[in-house]
Amino acid sequence: MRGFLVPGRHLALTGAIALAVAAQSAAPAAAGAQSAAWRVASGELVVVCPLTVGGSFEARTRGLSGHLAVDPAQPSRLTGEVVVDLKTLDTGIGLRNTHMRDSYLEVGKGDLFERAVLSEIVLKGEAATASGATTFTATLLVHGTRKPVSGQVRIARAGADVRVDASFPVNLPDFGIPEPRYLGVGVKDQVQVKVKFGSAR
Asked: What's the whole-model pTM score?
C-alpha cells in the first residue's frame, strides 16, 4: 500500500508550481487598478498524478498564501513568493495522505520540506497588465531542492478582479523524490499541476 501513497508527494511538487499561477491572480494589495502589488487571496491547487498502469488520481489543497509585487526595473518580473502548505495536500485517502506527507515529502524535516515555494516569477508580457493566454517561468522549492519550472497561464480581468487558470508539469526526480512504485505499479515521474485562482480586494 505504501507505494500507492507516494503519488501524493507529486502533488506537493505540483502544489508548489500552482503557486506560480496564484501569483498571477493575486489580489491587489493597494487601492487602484494599476497597483503593482498583489496579495494571494483564495484558490485551489490540483495535482494530476498519472498511474503507470493507466488512469490517474488527484491531490488538492487550498492552502495558498503569499505576496507579490511587480519589479519596477523589470516589468515582466514579480518579486516576493507564493507558498503552498504541503501539510494540507489531500488525495481523498487518509493513509495515503499520511505516507505522502511523512514518508515522501518528509514535512517533519522543517520549513524547507513542509512548504512548496514559488518565486522569481517572470511572465511573457508586463505583469501589471497581463491578460489572456501567456507563459511564465519561475523557481520552485520542494523537498529542500530549488529548480526552474515553466508553464501556461490564462489571466482574465474584470475591473479590479482577476481570475487565473494555469497549468505546468513537474518532474519528481528533479526534486530528489524517490520513484513512487509498489509491486511494479505507481505514479509516473511527471505530474501535471492545475491552478484556478481568483483575486480579492
From this structure: 0.78
Q: Phi first, then psi: give them for residue 101, nearest 5 degrees.
A: -75, -45
Could you give the number of structural domains in the chain? 1
* DSSP β-bridge partners for residue 25: none
Domain hosting residue 45, numbered range: 2-198
Walk along the chain (201 residues) and give the pLDDT tens digit of each residue.
Answer: 344 334 444 444 444 444 444 444 444 444 333 446 778 777 888 888 888 888 888 889 999 888 878 899 999 998 988 888 999 999 898 887 887 888 778 888 999 999 999 899 999 988 888 889 999 999 999 999 999 999 998 888 777 677 778 889 999 899 998 777 665 668 888 999 887 777 654
Which three cell numbers mark 90?
489531500
Q: Which cell numbers hold the place of 165? A: 487558470
Report the CATH number that the domain containing residue 193 is assigned in CATH: 2.40.128.110
Cα distances from 87 to residues 38, 62, 65, 154, in angstroms, run 24, 11, 14, 28
